[in-house]
């Protein structure tokens, strides 16, 4: 009685500028998170993982782009305790062009979520050719699959290792960029419409 109809992923009409993304990040080596700040995104675990990566990488930065939702004080506390808070950039809400530019310049997008529905930021990153590291929760497991890197939720050391490994492996980043883009292109709005139409026809026949 439950039918899953996947979301579509839109290809942005905007021209991406990787240099503009690096300017927003304040450096050329950065990982990015995009979304609304709320507890299910588990940003404290992402901050803890970044601290571990930054211990051994003096150049990498973490960019957090998205407006505050509820429970944003958890992130504020995590940032105040971070050893490398000077390399964590909290941009707040950004325009679509800024989001596109950040994805273009990023080494990867990282999602440490405890729960996700479809996981649209991951889909947008994949469509943009940006490698994705995400937790194996909700729709992210299906969306990302083997076209990205999946880790267990709430495991900062595992997430840190995944980030560090990907930062150090340019051929793998290139491979994931290509495979992620190919996978994202399967999620068309035409496919979504067809799935909904078939469901409505089945309902009408009952």
What does this protein look like?
- This protein is an alpha/beta fold and 206 residues long.
- The chain has 9 helices and 6 strands, in the order αβαβαβαβαβαβααα.
- The protein has helices at residues 18-25, 43-56, 73-81, 96-105, 120-128, 140-144, 156-167, 170-184, 189-205, and strands at residues 30-34, 61-65, 88-92, 108-111, 132-135, 149-151.
- The chain has a 6-stranded parallel β-sheet with strand order 3-2-1-4-5-6, with helices on both faces.
- Strand 5 (132-135), helix 6 and strand 6 (149-151) form a beta-alpha-beta unit.
- It is globular.
- The two termini are 12 Å apart.
Tell me the number of strands: 6
Derived from helix and strand composition plus strand pairing, the structural class reads: alpha/beta
Q: Give a short account of the largest sheet.
A: 6 strands, parallel
Strand arrangement, largest sheet?
Answer: 3-2-1-4-5-6
Shape: globular
Enumerate the spans where pLDDT stays under 50 for 5 or more consecutive residues.
Answer: none
> How much helix, percentage-wise, in residues?
40-55%
What's the helix count? 9
Please state roughly what percent of the residues sit in beta strands, choosing from under 5%, 5-15%, 15-25%, 25-35%, 35-45% or over 45%.
5-15%
Q: pLDDT average, as an integer?
A: 97
- Along the chain, the helix and strand elements come as HEHEHEHEHEHEHHH
Distance between the termini: 12 Å
Return Rg in Å: 17 Å
């Amino acid at each position: 009685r439950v039918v899953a109809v996947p979301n579509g992923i839109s290809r942005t009409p905007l021209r991406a500028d990787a240099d503009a993304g690096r300017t927003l990040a304040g450096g050329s080596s950065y990982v990015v998170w995009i979304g609304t700040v709320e507890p299910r995104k588990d940003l404290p675990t992402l901050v803890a993982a970044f601290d571990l990566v930054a211990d051994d990488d003096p150049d990498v930065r973490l960019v957090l782009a998205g407006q505050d939702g509820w429970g944003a004080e958890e992130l504020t506390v995590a940032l105040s305790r971070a050893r490398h808070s000077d390399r964590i950039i909290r941009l707040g809400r950004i325009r679509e062009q800024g989001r596109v530019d950040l994805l273009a310049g990023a080494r990867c997008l990282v999602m440490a979520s405890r729960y996700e529905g479809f996981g649209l930021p991951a889909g947008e990153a994949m469509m943009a050719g940006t490698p994705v590291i995400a937790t194996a929760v909700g729709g992210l497991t299906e969306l990302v699959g083997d076209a990205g890197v999946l880790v267990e939720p709430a495991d900062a050391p595992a997430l840190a290792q995944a980030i560090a490994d990907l930062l150090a492996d340019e051929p793998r980043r290139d491979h994931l960029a290509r495979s992620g883009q190919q996978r994202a292109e399967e999620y068309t709005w035409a496919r979504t419409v067809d799935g909904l139409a078939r469901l409505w026809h089945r309902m009408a026949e009952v």
